[in-house]
Amino acid sequence: MPTAHDAIVVGSGACGGWAAMELAQAGLKVLMLEAGARVDPATDFHHTFLYQMDYRGRGRPGLLRRYSGSERNYRIMLDNLENPYTTSPETTYSWGRSRCLGGRTLHWARATDRMADYEFKAASRDGYGLDWAVSYADLAPYYDRIESFIGVSGERLGLPQFPDGPFLPPMALNCAETIFTAACQRLGWSSTHRRLAQLTRVHNGRPPCHYCGNCVNGCEVGAMFNPIAVTLPPALKTGNLEIRTDSVVARVRMNRENRAQGVTYVERHTMKSVDVDARYVILAASTLENTRLLLLSEKGGLANSSGTLGQYMMDQVSGGGVSGTLPRLEGGPSRLDDGKSAGITIPNFQNIDKKSERKDFIRGYVMNATGGQTEYPQFAAALPGYGSAWKREIKSRYVAQARVWIAGAEMLARKENFVELDPEVKDHWGIPVLKIHFTHSENDSLHALRERLQADRGFPAAGGGVVPEGGRGSHAQRAARRPGRIPGSARLAGRTAGESPGRFDPRGRHRADERQPERRRSQLVWPDARHLKPVRLRRQRVPVDGRQASDPDHDGAERARLRSPAGDGEGAKGLIKLGAFSPLSPFTAGCHRLPLGLTSIRKLRMLGRAWSSSRRRSSRSSSPST
Ligand SMILES: Cc1cc2nc3c(=O)[nH]c(=O)nc-3n(C[C@H](O)[C@H](O)[C@H](O)COP(=O)(O)OP(=O)(O)OC[C@H]3O[C@@H](n4cnc5c(N)ncnc54)[C@H](O)[C@@H]3O)c2cc1C
Ligand code: SF4
Question: What does the H/E/C string look like for 301-344?
């Protein structure tokens, strides 16, 4: 039966926006269903200082718990009461989500680094898990295409572990970043401007960044990548895209031939259930929401012939690092440092080849460093003293703030990190929610420990001193904090660890803070630095899926699953699952490298081309002249 739409795209984030653009430009009639509200940059994004807000950015009392953001972005952050999720008792994970037109890229950090072969082929080197089904050479043309279209500012380095792209000019470094760059040179570390999907000159009709520093609250001029500014306008221009916001998709419906036939969605405000059909269904609701939809669509999970749907969940390890001040900058004049949100990146230099192989952990991480004046001196709350002397001290250090942090460490994919449908809890529309089971491995913790030690080297090389962060940051930092050079910092570091009931247990267990669930981050379970031992994973055959990876049958089946164009084997015809790496890797919850699985783009392009040529063929055969 003919349907009004050729394709349904569920979700309007980085992946959904790209899918809609590709398909609409190829001539398909596309229906985009977005669970969140429509967002209009002109009216929804504001430049406001904390002092201009009723609650100084903390949000209306009672509401803060409902939103993961601040008073600035009620509009673009999701309501946790409408959209709850649950976690197992040992889980230390905060699901950073967004429900609005444009998804998470409305407030993302814009880092757009490429992955490299040392990551795709890591399993061959260290024996853990499986190599990726693609190599860098397979992906490079797609990286080129995306970066050329969205605009990424950066500097070409020529490092194989940190591949270059067709960059726009980088942003200038500020004083702190210049000092850190010199420190990296002294230490023999490569460093460069962070590569950001943020324009430094006019690009594809979009204006350059005017360095207002408002990015995480939404860019009203479209100088950073997000679907509202970049992919949806050309898709809408074709006349082939219809967007329905406030439409919460509840499941994918299959036909008798086991092909995706359409979806059922609930109108967010009226609670009305609606069925829509199309020839193709594209799931682009984010990695975890896609999984939830597949689990909701069929008993045991749709497209789950491998039985691994929801397992091997990964995210990036966050945490580690140090915050402090750079004495050379102390007492200097005020500068608009936080208008430019770049910083420097120190690409991974460990476990990238035989020479850099480490004995104590496998895989690696990237570090970032930045500094300078910010809107609010976060460290002030932890600084002892009072009165005008205290204010002078804050003002003097305020301009010299600096930090080095772990920008992304590769988590190991483990079966014990998984999601399932919660048997009891439902969301506002009566749809079962996800239950997340997630802990960090010792290898993840060792990444943070090593990064912390390296940051401790990097900071003195830059002439920096260490001060406590005043209750923010990772637990790793607190447990392993080394007394700083600034008087009082050691005492305060102790206080940070001991006086945050519910946030940190000095005996070594992270406790979920039930009062502020939205504040929890996917940070490390930090057992205690002394307890950590080198992991002896190298060259071992590590169990995958409860069996040994050397089991040829299992290994082959697993590789076949990863190589299968549908990502998950049979039962997925007509259904394309987009997500951060989801078609490629076992499972990645919140990618930090790439908003869109690149093989998905290849699939979309193939789909678009096949569609156009079938249209050409059918129009030739129906044309009177042929
Ligand atoms: C604060 C922050 C900083 C980040 N920084 C970086 C960075 O620097 N670099 C980087 O590479 N990545 C970063 N990320 C991650 C990156 O933003 C995501 O990986 C990427 O945006 C994912 O795109 P997506 O389209 O898969 O999902 P999303 O952007 O989450 O979009 C999914 C969309 O689907 C909608 N949806 C969900 N469920 C349903 C449903 N049932 N029915 C209909 N619609 C639904 C949602 O409302 C949403 O609009 C960051 C993320 C956050 C939150
Ligand atoms: S700093 Fe630049 S990219 Fe960020 S919101 Fe301002 S203009 Fe947009």
Answer: CCCCCCCCCCCCCCCEECCCCEEEECHHHCCCCCCCHHHCCCCE
* Neighbour count for residue 27 (Cβ, 10 Å): 15
The full length of the chain comes to: 626
User: Which atom of ligand 1 is found nearest the CA of 16?
Assistant: 25
Q: What is the H or E stretch that residue 436 is in?
A: strand 432-437
Ligand nearest to the CA of 14: 1
Tell me the pLDDT band of 63, cut-offs 50, 70 and 90: low
Name the nearest CA neighbour of 465 among 323, 320, 332, 369: 323
Instruction: Note the ligand closest to the C-alpha atom of 224.
Output: 2
**pLDDT digit string, tens, across residues 258-312:** 899 999 999 999 999 999 999 999 999 999 999 999 999 999 999 999 999 999 9
How many Å lie between the centroid of ligand 2 and the Cα of residue 220?
Answer: 8
Cβ within 8 Å of residue 381, ≥6 positions away: 470, 471
597 Cα to the center of ligand 1, angstroms:
12
Q: Distance (Å, rounded) from C-alpha 29 to C-alpha 622?
A: 20
Task: Tell me the C-alpha distance between 567 and 291, whole Å.
Answer: 12
Angle CA 178–182–188, to nearest 5:
140
Q: What is the DSSP letter of 153?
A: B
Q: Which residues contact 229 (CB under 8 A, 6 or more apart)?
A: 41, 206, 219, 222, 223
Give the ligand whose atoms come closest to the C-alpha of residue 580.
1
Structure tokens at 5: 């739409």
175-187 and 442-461 helices cross at what angle (nearest 10)? 110
CA angle at 312 for the pair 306 and 315, rounded to the nearest 5°: 145
Q: Using alpha carbons only, give the angle 203, 208, 212 rounded to the nearest 5 degrees.
A: 155
Instruction: Report the atom number in ligand 2 closest to the C-alpha of 340.
Output: 1
The SS3 of residue 267 is strand
Residues in contact with ligand 2 by the CB-under-6-Å rule are: 198, 209-215, 219, 221, 223-224
Which range (288-297, 450-459, 613-622) has the least confidence? 613-622
Q: Which ligand is nearest to the CA of 106?
A: 1
Q: Does residue 178 have a pLDDT over 80?
A: yes
- In this structure, the residue with its CA closest to atom 4 of ligand 2 is 215
Atom of ligand 2 nearest to the CA of 209: 2
**Ligand 1 atom 35: the closest Cα is on which residue?**
11
Q: Does the structure show a pLDDT above 90 at 192?
A: yes
Average pLDDT of every residue of the chain: 76
pLDDT tens, position by position, 120-168: 999 999 999 999 999 999 999 999 999 999 999 999 999 999 999 999 9
At 471-511, the pLDDT tens digits run 222 222 121 122 222 222 222 222 222 222 222 222 222 22
Question: By C-alpha distance, which of 267, 382, 409, 392 is closest to 324?
Answer: 382
Contacts of 623 (CB under 8 A, 6+ apart): none
As for ligand 1, residues whose beta carbon falls within 6 Å of it are 10-16, 33-36, 96, 98-100, 103-105, 107-111, 248-249, 284-286, 289, 579-580, 590-595
* Cα-based angle 542, 545, 546 (whole degrees, multiple of 5): 75
Closest residue to atom 8 of ligand 2, CA basis: 219
